[in-house]
Design a protein that fits this description.
The protein is 37% helix and 14% strand. The protein is an alpha/beta fold. It has 2 domains: 10-172, 3-Layer(aba) Sandwich (Rossmann fold); 189-381, 3-Layer(aba) Sandwich (Rossmann fold). Helix 2 (46-62) runs parallel beside helix 6 (162-172). The longest helix has 18 residues, at 2-19.
Length: 382
């Protein structure tokens, strides 16, 4: 009951608070040293946060003297520690239980840029931070009354790729000129060392590595595990020296181990290990180094896909439910191969997909993926 009451009570209170808020909000402040403290919000998943880094860089270039705080998901705190575009990271999981504690930490900001955050928490937090200027896109939700950009009303379908959406928020916040879409991520020495140790334990110091990402944030974005195995086996037959790292979160360890075992059983490597499930064995800070080390990544619409793009590794990206024009590789499109199939269910249940292995992703044939990977491998070795 308390959870159901929180949002309407917060809504009414902030309606009243905003109605009597007479602080000046001159647009002439934007892009000037009058903006001294900036709150940036991107506190959801890995890919969403990477997509926000071009917007963060645009803010840093526009406000070089400002203190920029990034609200980031706690699970990503270690990965983004040292991000050059920000001065401070504050963890927030987007949940009610930590809303009040986080709000108490956010004081005396001049501007808030909401790049990606769940409602009903993100926009209220931005307002409670004290920010006079608050920008968010899309802006077509019930918390719109707290925003500086209340009109025109824009939804996700109006905003294009996720990077373009973040850069549009940065422009509203005062950024000008040509803004680069390139994403950034720290490359900590500890992460590189952890990867180096793991590879040495397997005798893979000089190995040709292909990374596979069978898991995804939703079932609807997963290519069937049996197809990952078959594709890897066919690649191993064509390129006998290949090794496969099956990456994923600790929660995906069983899935990754199943895929690695299937590869190992079907395409064994004489005197060595063909496939390694790194899920749960490598710390998150080692993931950028792993993606950088791999010759390519085969994946659905995932955070590691965006991480591979960030560090310059080619991807074979598999799409059906989601739209690569919105969430696929955002640049260097000649480097990557995107395979997209049609949605088979009408309506599509997306995050609530009833299939353990979605039938729309099953429309992606093994031969297509192997051909795409072979094209990239040939290009890299040419």
């Amino acid at each position: 009951m308390r959870l159901r009451l929180r949002e309407p009570l917060l809504y009414r209170w902030l309606r009243l608070k905003r109605a009597v808020d007479r602080r000046p909000r001159p647009a002439s402040e934007l892009g000037t040293p009058a903006i001294r403290r900036i709150l940036a919000i991107s506190c959801t998943a890995l890919g969403d946060t990477l997509l926000s880094t071009p917007g963060l860089r645009a803010l840093r270039l526009t406000y070089p003297q400002a203190h920029i705080t990034l609200l980031v998901h706690p699970s990503l705190l270690a990965l983004f520690t040292g991000l050059a575009e920000v001065d401070e990271l504050i963890p927030y999981d987007g949940k009610w239980r930590s809303f009040r504690r986080t709000a108490r930490q956010l004081k005396d900001y001049d501007l808030a840029a909401i790049f990606h955050g769940n409602e009903p928490q993100a926009t209220p937090l931005a307002y409670l931070s004290g920010a006079r200027h608050i920008f968010k896109l899309p802006n077509n939700n019930r918390w719109n009354f707290l925003l500086s950009n209340r009109t025109p009303l824009l939804g996700w379908d109006d905003l294009g790729h996720g990077i373009a959406q973040r850069l549009a928020v940065a422009r509203l916040a005062g950024a000008v000129g040509e803004l680069s879409p390139r994403m950034t991520v720290p490359l900590p020495a500890a992460g590189a060392a952890a990867l180096s140790t793991a590879l040495a334990e397997r005798g893979w110091q000089e190995a040709n590595i292909v990374a596979l990402q069978p898991g995804a944030s939703t079932m609807s974005r997963r290519w069937p595990r049996s197809r990952f195995i078959t594709a890897a086996v066919q690649l191993a037959q064509a390129y006998p020296d290949l090794r496969f790292v099956v990456s994923g979160s600790p929660a995906e360890a069983a899935l990754c181990q199943e895929v690695a075992a299937g590869i190992e059983t079907t395409a064994p490597l004489a005197g060595g290990v063909r496939a390694w499930a790194s899920a749960g064995q490598l710390p998150l800070i080692a993931l950028p180094a792993l993606m950088q080390r791999a010759r390519l990544l085969v994946t659905g619409d995932t955070g590691p896909m965006h991480l591979a793009v960030t560090v310059g590794t080619p991807v074979v990206a598999l799409f059906a439910v989601s739209d690569p024009a919105r969430s696929g590789p955002g640049y260097d499109l000649d480097k990557h191969v995107v395979i997209r199939k049609w949605r088979t269910c009408d309506p599509c249940f997306s995050k609530n997909c009833p299939y353990a292995e979605p039938i729309c992703m099953d429309n992606i044939a093994v031969d297509e993926v192997v051909a795409a990977a072979a094209t990239i491998l040939a290009r890299k070795s040419a």
